[in-house]
Amino acid sequence: MRSIPRWSATLALLATALLVPGSPVATAAPPPGNDGRSVIVQLFEWKWTDVAAECTNVLGPKGYGGVQISPPQENIVLPSRGYPWWQRYQAISYQLESRSGTRAEFAAMVQACHAAGVKVYADAVINHTAGTWPDGTRGSAGSSFTHYDYPGIYQTQDFHHCGRNGNDDIVNWNDAWEVHHCELVDLADLATGTEYVRNRVAAYLNDLISLGVDGFRVDAAKHMPPGDIAAIKSRLSGDPYLYQEVVYGAGEPVQPSQYRGNGDVIEFRYGQQLSAAFEGGTLASLSSLGNGLEPGESSVVFTDNHDTQRSEAALTYHDGALYTLANVFQLAWPYGTPVVMSSFAFTDKEAGPPSSADGRTNDVSCGSGWVCEHRQTPIANMVGFRNAVGSAPVANWWTNGGNQISFGRGSQGYVAVNREPAALSRTFSTSLPAGTYCDVTRGEVRDGACTGPTVTVGTDGQFTASVPAMGALAIHHLARV
């Protein structure tokens, strides 16, 4: 879940804010994963047993550094709404029982991912509990509750009751007190300024840490004062990685920059600007994507996530090749820590994952209700590209002034993106050493040979190639043949 500011007002500003070509580029974030692996994948609504298998069979071998999992705590169950995806964001207790699986399956999943070299980041719903629903009287572990009474956990004194707007919901987004203390669409707002709530939330997060969880996406962080999150973080064991959901709103008093002292922040504007360039703007405008946003070294970014693919003018898997190309660019561009979305197919924006009639999630089968964007060859292999180029700077930028671009990452890699209906054929200038390289957007190196096209870089750093219409080309120093 996230706050929804007045996007109609901000999108117009963002459309004119695409950055000036030739400006300096923001730096990339330090990798949160292992061995320089910086890319996170969001396996949205996957079962723990499927996450474990994916870490072993796909994520580890492809070089993903981390996996973001759906909220693991007990949540509300809403059969009358068809078990929607968002029921996972209405917490009932801190038992690790949900449609993703049991506590034992969760623990086994973390171990399997660690064995594959993949860190686990849990989506942490700590700002609120549930809303009021006619059939919302039990949780996924069988717990009963009412809106401000969660037996053995929280009672009415543990919630904010802002009393300003009749139903306690946020109305004035220009009032920081309301944003922090009133309810986000009827979700009972925890009094995170109290010692009891801080200790109770920290106990839940420490339980996850004890099972091996490496960090947290802090859901709805914008609706908690930064000091409250800091107080909770101070109670956590070790040094978990935090990235906080703080949606930028033009002119609003609560801004992402206020939360950087607690950890990284999710930079929503990056995905908005990326989508705007690919959908209706020009790729040439991306030459300095990241300038004017939060610092890249403390930002987490995405092309789309579970919220934006349902509520914003964001690119999603529905956009086919355009979406794939945007992800290729995101993984090649040195700004932020990228999160790759892996979703289930939907037409109803409220629909939950593929499941049985009683709401039990089906096993993941890519192509059968599960999209698995992260497995697409261009996306999965660009994870390896990003790992290979590390922090190398952008070099040798070229554009036709429209929707054909190419650029290098120092002497470590080179990428070209063609968002036009005709092939791009030209000689490209790089800083790569001479050699024959595998185009990782269409193949990979196996037994010393490339399963797809290759290009040959001469001693002058140049190569001649054709990039398909609505396609890409990417080479790097670890994919030589």
Structure description:
This protein is α/β, with parallel strands linked by helices and 481 residues long. It folds into two domains: 383 residues, TIM Barrel, CATH 3.20.20; 83 residues, Sandwich (Immunoglobulin-like), CATH 2.60.40. Helix content is 22%, strand content 17%. The chain contains ten helices and 18 strands. The strands form five sheets. The protein has an eight-stranded parallel β-barrel with strand order 1-2-3-4-5-6-7-8, surrounded by five helices. It has a four-stranded antiparallel β-sheet with strand order 9-10-11-18, covered by helices on one side. Strand 14 and strand 15 form a beta hairpin. The longest helix has 16 residues. The protein is globular. The chain starts with 6 loop residues before the first helix and ends in a 5-residue tail after the last strand. The N terminus is likely disordered.
CATH architecture of the largest domain: Alpha-Beta Barrel
Q: What's the level 1 CATH class of the largest domain? A: Alpha Beta
Q: Specify the CATH homologous superfamily of the largest domain.
A: Glycosidases
Query: Can you summarize the main beta sheet?
Result: 8 strands, parallel, barrel
- Range of helix content: 10-25%
Which series of helices and strands comes N to C? HEHEHEHHEHEEHEHHEHEEEEEEEEEE
- Mean pLDDT, to the nearest integer, reads 93
Poorly predicted regions are 2-26
Number of strands: 18
Top keywords for this entry?
eight-stranded parallel barrel; 481 residues; alpha/beta; Immunoglobulin-like; TIM Barrel
